[in-house]
Amino acid sequence: MKEMKVDAIKDGSVIDHLPPGKALEIVKILKPSPTASILLGTNLVSGKMGQKDIVKIVNHELGRDELNTLALLAPEATLTIIRDYKIYQKSKVELPSQVADLFTCPNPNCITNAEPAASRFHILPGPPREMRCHYCEKVYKAEEVVEGRV
Amino acid sequence: MNNLISMNDLSRDEILELVQLAGDIEEGRINPSLKGTLTALLFFEPSTRTSFSFDAAAKRLGGATLIMSGTGNTSVKKGETLADTLRTIAEYADLIVMRNRFEGAARYASEQVGVPVINAGDGANQHPTQALLDLYSIAKTQGTLENLTVGLVGDLRYGRTVHSLVQALSPFKPKFHLLSPAHLALPDYLLRELDNKGIPYEQSETIESAVPDMDIMYVTRIQRERFPDQEEYERLKGSYIIRNATLEKAKKNMKLLHPLPRVEEIATEVDDSPRAYYFPQAKNGMYMRQAILSTLLEVL
Predict the structure, then answer these.
(1) Which of A109, A141, B134, B185 is deepest in the core (most CB within 10 A)?
(2) ipTM attached to this prediction
C-alpha cells in the first residue's frame, strides 16, 4: 500500500513517529500560536511502528519547554526542524530529569497553587511514566500533569 | 544537612546520627548550647504540642524563640505572601520552624530564605520531626531500628505522621501491617514506594490477627470529619479502639505509640500498661528536636 504523504512545509517543525491517534491531543497540549497553520496525519502507515501520527507546524520551531512536554507525551517521537524545505536539525526527543514552571500541580493543596511559586516536577524512571511534584511530593501519571500545561 | 523538610531527603546515616545525638543529649553525654540563637516558630496552623516541644527544646539549651500561632493578627491575614512573611522573619531569626496547611510549603520556604528551615507539618504531606522522634522512641524501646514489624493503625490516608514514619523506617528493613478502614488506607503512591523498595506489608481492616506479630503498634486518630457518612463513622470507630484486651496476645517487647493528641482510640485503661509508651514518646520529641536544632544551628 502506498504511504499517504502529508504536505511538505517550507519552514517549521515536523513531529514524527507519534503513537497513532495522539496527534490531536499533542497539538492541543503544545498550544502553538492560535493562528499557526498545522498539518496533521493520523494512523499513517509506518515501517517501524505499523501505524503512526505526524504533526507539522508551519513557521514555528519548537522550543525547550515544548520539547520537554513532547518528550513526556511521546518519548519515541522525532523532531525535525525545517528551514527553506531542507532539514535543518533532526533529533529524537529526550526525557528531561525535571521540568520547571511548565505545568500546574494537580494537587489543589500544593503550595505552588497557593503562592506565586513556579511548579517543578521530577520525572521518575518509568514505565509507567510518572512525575513527582518537587514541593508536595505527590506522584502523578505524566498524562495527568501534562494536561494541565500552563 | 541544611534544612529538614522531608524524610525522603535524609540518608540512613543521617537518621542514625540524629537518633544517636538525641540519646547523647538525653543522657547528658553531649550538652549543646543554643545561647545567643533565636528560633522562629511559625505555626500558620495553630499547634500547641509541636510548638511547645520546639519551644522547650530550644529554651532548655539556652536558646530564645519567637512564636507565631495561627494567623489571626498577622500580615498573612492582610494578604501578604508566604514568601514575604518568611523573608522578613529570616532577617531576625537564625532558624525557622514552620507548619502550614499547604503541602510543600516548607520546601518552598527553604528556597526563599537564607536560614535553615524545619518542616513542622505541611498539610497531609510530611512531619519529619515527628517521624524522627518516633524512630528515636522505637530505637530506645527495641534497642534497634532493624528488621522490626510495625503495625500502623487508624487513619493511614490523611495522617502525615504515618506517611513520614513509613518513609523513615524504610531504610531499616521493616515489615508493616497496615490496619485501617478501606477508604482510609495508605495512599497508593506510598504503597508503590514500598513495592519498589521491596518492603513487605499486609493490609487489613481488622487489627486482632496482626497484634501477636508486632514489635511496635503505632495508633493514629480516625477523625469524624474524614467520613462522608456519619453512621459509617459510628459503626467503624469501635473497631479501631485499643483496649487492654486488644493487647493480650502481643509480644513482651511490643510498645504502643501514638503521635497524640489521643481522643478515644486508645482507652485510658491502657495508660498503665507496660506497653503504653505515648507519653515518654512525647518527651523523646524534645530531645530529638534538640538534636535537630543543634545540628542545623551548627553548635555541636
Answers:
(1) B134
(2) 0.90
